[in-house]
Amino acid sequence: MKWGNSANHWGLLSRLLHWFSAIAVFFMFGLGITMINMRLSPMKLEMFIVHKSIGMLLLVVIFIRVIWRLLNPAPRASKHLSKLQTKIVFLGQLLMYGLLFAIPISGWVINSAANFPLQWFGLFEIPPITEPSIVVEDYAKTTHFVLICILGSVVLLHVCAALHHHWIKRNDILKRML
Question: Which domain holds residue 33?
């Protein structure tokens, strides 16, 4: 298998970055839901550290994905998609990339505005990107939540579309990313 994309299939690096991102997003959804429903405890604080660290890692991975995508164009659109579907897929991908940038950045703003140190897996501190501010923190929390809800909807559509093409339409669209 080639590292780069071919005319008809995603290459190994694109696949690895895609599936790492997918697993991280699903893990972050679960972790986030668990954390917000917990009382303050050492376990909750540890979970926040992991959540923030994975969020920052995901931000870097998405940046790498975008650079890789610009350097290594996507396979041509599947012959099983109409022109309208191809445009919808492209817009959906842009939306997901935008959300996957915006969500970790909004989390970083929350952390910075709350004046908490941002430790990346306990290895080093990431500097704040805004001054401490309760107003900014509250706005960023709302933004973070809304963006996560939008991402959840887009991911659900993405997964349903992939499974629809695989099980109902019985075409190669999902196989191109496996």
Answer: 12-177
The structural domain count of the chain equals: 1
pTM for the structure as a whole: 0.90
Amino acid at the residue 111: N
Asked if 5 and 14 touch (Cβ cutoff 8 Å), the reply is yes
Angle in degrees, CA 116, 119, 123, rounded to 5: 160
- Is the CB of residue 119 less than 8 Å from the CB of residue 53? yes
The answer to whether 166 and 147 are in contact (CB under 8 A) is no
For 70-108, write each residue's pLDDT tens digit: 999 888 877 888 899 889 989 999 999 999 999 999 999
What CATH number corresponds to the domain at position 135?
1.20.950
2 found inside a domain: no
Residues in contact with 157: Cβ distance below 8 Å, sequence separation at least 6, in sequence order:
92
